Amino acid sequence: MPYSAEISRANPTCLLFLVDQSSSMLEPFGAQPDKQKAEGVAQGIEGVKSVKDLLQVVPKPQRDAVDKTDDVVKDDVKKAFDADPVVKDSGISVASVNKGVVLLSGSAKTLDAHLRAVEVARKVPGVHRVSSEVTVEGTN
Q1: Contacts of 60 (CB under 8 A, 6+ apart)
Q2: What's the mean pLDDT in 52-76?
Q3: Short-list 18, 19, 15, 17, CA closest to 5
Q4: pTM of structure
Q5: Apex CA 92: angle with CA 133 and CA 80, to 5°?
Q6: What's residue 24's pLDDT?
Q7: DSSP letter string over 58-71?
């Protein structure tokens, strides 16, 4: 499944993919020390402003659920947001969905609305993880 991002001088982007084709990883990938090391390497690249860990490891029995198309998942999350009175007019939207990982964006009016949006999105079938770039008005 392709992932797209705007890449420009105003919005430089680096996508890092780790692939182990040798099957040499005897230990599960994604343990906290591994994540911290990978994030540290990415932060060390000149010009990097932030690092978002969107890695997910899906066990074989759950892979069929990942096959639900991202467009369907995105539509289902939007419908769930519209059906929830707290989230509906909160200023939070679905920026993207990539293999079941939902990225939320926007500016929430309250922290409660932000937390509710994460909860609502996570309950949608096909969603495996929710990441957020939502800002809450009046904080920073």
Answers
A1: none
A2: 70
A3: 15
A4: 0.55
A5: 120
A6: 47
A7: --GGGHHHHTS-HH
Residue 17 phi/psi, 5-degree rounding, is -120, 135
Q: Which of 15, 95, 94 minimizes the C-alpha distance to 48?
A: 15
- C-beta separation of 125 from 68 below 8 A: yes
Q: How is domain 63-136 classified at the CATH fold level?
A: Histidine-containing Protein; Chain: A; (3.30.1340)
- Which sequence spans correspond to the domains of the chain? 1-55, 63-136
Tokens (6 digits) for 119: 């909860």
Beta strands in the chain (DSSP E): 92-98, 101-108, 129-132, 135-136
SS3 label, residue 43: helix
Q: Both tokens of residue 84? A: 């929830």
* Alpha helices, DSSP H, located in 19-69: 32-43, 63-66
Assigned token pair, 57: 């490891």
Contact 135, 107 (CB under 8 A): yes
Distance from chain centroid for Cα 56: 10
- For residue 74, which of 105, 48, 100 has the smallest C-alpha distance? 100
